[in-house]
Amino acid sequence: MNSEFFEAVKALAAEKNISTDYLFTKIEAALAAAMRKNYGGNNKEREVVKCKIDTEAHTISIWAELEVVDEITEPGAQILLEDAKKLDKEATVGSFVIKPIELSEYGRIAAQTAKHVIRQGIREAERSRQIEEFRSKKQEIVSAKVARIDPIKGNVSLDIAGGDAVLPKKEQVPGETFTEGQHIQVYIVDVRDDERGSKVMISRTHPGFVRRLFEREVPEIFEGEVEIKSVSREAGSRTKIAVYAADENIDPVGACIGPKGARVNTIVDVLGGEKIDIIKYSDDPAEYISAALAPAEVSEVLVAPSGAKECRAAVPDNQLSLAIGNKGQNARLAAKLTGWKIDIKPESVFYEEIENEKAAALEAELAAEEAAQAAAEAEAAEEVAAEEPVAEESAEPASEA
After folding, report:
1. In this predicted model, what pLDDT tens digit does every residue of 207-263 receive, in sequence order?
2. DSSP state at residue 163
3. Cis check: omega of the bond before 75, within 30 degrees of 0
4. In this structure, are residues 227 and 243 in contact, taking their beta carbons and an 8 Å threshold?
5. Is the N or the C terminus of the chain less surrounded, counting Cβ atoms within 10 Å?
6. Pair 107, 40 in one domain
7. Are 246 and 259 in contact, with CB atoms under 8 Å apart?
8. What is the CATH number for 266?
């Protein structure tokens, strides 16, 4: 075999960034498959045609393993004894002989079949490499180029480092638009495997997208001096992020904002103007919840005594709508951020409820004391009543004397 063939295969493997051994294996399978129709194509029990490529000696060997028989029942997979003797003098009925196949035997259809199998193998190898590349970047931000936009469904096909993925409409920020050739950033959520193959899940709405943007823009987060505790997001509108620093000398909120807001503004630009509330995390639930309800000022937070993650928060009457937010957005984001169920009330109602609860508790306490006193008196009366007959019986003998 001409050495130029082997050099061409190696060059193709390098161009496609796939293994040379893998590509030669696919060529072997393709050459064998192309001749299978002529040599026992219907035989499902064994592979009649086989191929072996020696990359060092630059040789290609193709052969058919034919069963020696007295009468042929499977054309192409069997050979008569007298013909088998020409290939192997020691051949006997029931044995197998090797019949070499020359490349010159490949006709136009066989050649096309081989090309198809090789191309399919290359595509499979490229896809496998792309999937592994995506796996290595799971939960990371990558740059992508818009290849095509579905005008009906709104899905966007992307070219990511030579691979392809689809950004579904539901994973796009509401209101954002794309153009072919545009470069955007996306977040690789996961790579999932099913019976149809591997599927790359990408998003621009995932909270992890914002988390990674802060890790990239804020050195203190990247170096571990500031920790992102939680992120809640309604993409395209607002995000809340809670940050914490173990070192009291580090201001976690200030680090995320940056000099003159430079760091957070860079992230806002990437998100298309999405508002971001950066709050300081606290192990004290009341303090954490109060911060989470920003920009509203919280007067007081009462945690449920039952131990459940539920609380009531009081805000000035004129800030109730600010605390709840447009269509309840601020309250929802605060609840998602903290993991607490928050019941927001204006101060007038909050403190009135507190006073009513105190009055009710006091009334219940007094009622309990009265009930306890009544029960004690009743018990004492029963004891007195039980002792009186005994006293009368002991007095009767004395009067007889």
Report:
1. 999 999 999 999 999 999 999 999 999 999 999 999 999 999 999 999 999 999 999
2. E
3. no
4. yes
5. C
6. yes
7. no
8. 3.30.300.20
